[in-house]
Specification:
This protein starts with 7 loop residues before the first helix and ends with a helix. The chain has one domain: Glutaredoxin (3-Layer(aba) Sandwich), CATH 3.40.30.10. With 280 residues, it is α+β, with helices and mostly antiparallel strands. Helix 3 links the parallel strand 3 (108-113) and strand 4. It has helices at 8-33, 40-60, 118-137, 158-172, 177-186, 198-209, 214-222, 226-236, 268-279, and strands at 78-81, 85-86, 108-113, 141-146, 252-255, 258-259.
Length: 280
Amino acid sequence: MPESKLTKSERQAAAREKARQQREEMRRKQKRRRILIQSSVLVGIIAVAAIVTIVVMNAVRPSSASTAGPANMISDGIVIGAGLTAERTDAIEAGGSATDAAAGTENRLIIYLDYQCPNCGDFEATNGAQIEEWVSSGDVTLEIRPLSFLDSASQNNYSSRAANAAACVANYEPDSFFTFNTAMFNNQPDEGTAGPTNSEIYALITGVTGTENSDLESCVMNETYSGWVEDATDRGIGDPNEFGLSVSGTPAVFFNDTAVSGSITTDASVLASVVNAAIG
């Protein structure tokens, strides 16, 4: 007789375990790949270059009418709580504005990221495991707000396409978002190369969810939320941005609305010291 199929929760648990193993491998690979750029001088140059890139991209991005966003991202981000379960929210309506529905949530960690951003990949490799532990236990509420300003660092506009895929997952498979986010960084392309195609991104998503979803597939393939990606990026970048936070590059990390600075991409203790002081 054929083996019984795994339940959805069992598939997701298996995917999270695989992602955790991949994260460790990614941390080792990225440490080797970036060992030559860890001097303070070069880090400063990279930070300045990232800020200049954002300013230039915002200046040349053509204006477009606001478009409807995905469900469960009314704040331009998805809120994930205990058990890695996403909070359900309405979508931003066409012509509408983002609403910080989770404002005032105790021990909230907000992360602005770009899936093409190598520093974001380093942040995930360094902090992903402890963030998963805090969020799974309910000690911390996580909000991930994707941005897209690094299409110029990709041969096939991976930054914006990846952000669109994130919106699709939030809309159709929100409880898989945390594991999807990990998987995206485990498969992050190098800057200056061609990133995964939309078909390959969808295959990655089904590897996380364990199921096919024709609506989600159409969303990824047709880049349904490309207009929202542009709008959310415009809203997210600023000093302050629409939520009163200072975001000039990624990763931009805030705990209880206070920026977390320092060596957050390479030293897990920096973020841990801030979070553990609050959660005990």
